[in-house]
Specification:
The protein is mainly alpha-helical and about 170 residues long. The chain has one domain. The chain is built from 8 helices and 3 strands; from the N terminus they run H-H-H-H-H-E-E-E-H-H-H. Helix 1 packs across helix 3, helix 1 packs across helix 7 and helix 2 packs across helix 3.
């Protein structure tokens, strides 16, 4: 087994993509194509996630309980969302369609992305290709929106419950 040099943000994106796929079968190249990440990055990420105990040794079965604990208690500290300048992009966190009716925010949070018209405070996505990948996958978008809500604010039980429901959802 390779040496573990710490988790990287794309590891979370890849794990959430696997969760979003549910029971659909997939190959590493499918994840790479759908996330606009190289095959080697997917492979290395899965190795890190095995070592980090977030996916089984089969590199297919996400350890959902461990992933949820990491997301709820660690994501904000390991991969914080540092607000940037106002610009146009894809809504995320409390500004995304999933959460905008539940929560009121003064300034929308966005991922900077071409082709989107929402003006708001930019926060970096966990990986640069996230907006493009989420445009093609609503389930992944919802998962990453909830993770961003945890990254930008203190723990919110409603967000945690929605995230838990989606992670454990069998599809």
């Amino acid at each position: 087994m390779k040496e573990h040099k710490g988790m990287r943000p794309q590891d979370i994106v890849i794990l959430l993509k696997i969760v979003a796929l549910g029971k659909q079968s997939w190959y590493k190249k499918d994840l790479a194509n759908q996330l606009y990440i190289s095959n080697s990055e997917v492979s290395e990420s899965l190795n890190r996630s095995v070592i980090g105990n977030l996916i089984e040794r089969d590199k297919v079965t996400v350890r959902k309980e461990q992933l949820l604990v990491f997301l709820v208690y660690g994501i904000k500290h390991v991969f914080p969302a540092v607000p940037g300048r106002l610009q146009r992009g894809m809504p995320t966190a409390y500004s995304a369609p999933l959460l905008e009716r539940e929560f009121v925010v003064d300034d929308p949070y966005i991922w900077p992305a071409k082709g989107h018209t929402t003006k708001g405070v930019s926060i970096p996505p966990l990986y640069p290709t996230v907006p493009k990948a989420c445009a093609d996958d609503e389930k992944l978008y919802d998962l990453l929106v909830l993770v961003d809500a945890l990254r930008v604010s203190r723990k919110n039980e409603a967000v945690v419950n929605m995230l838990k429901e989606r992670i454990y959802q069998e599809n």
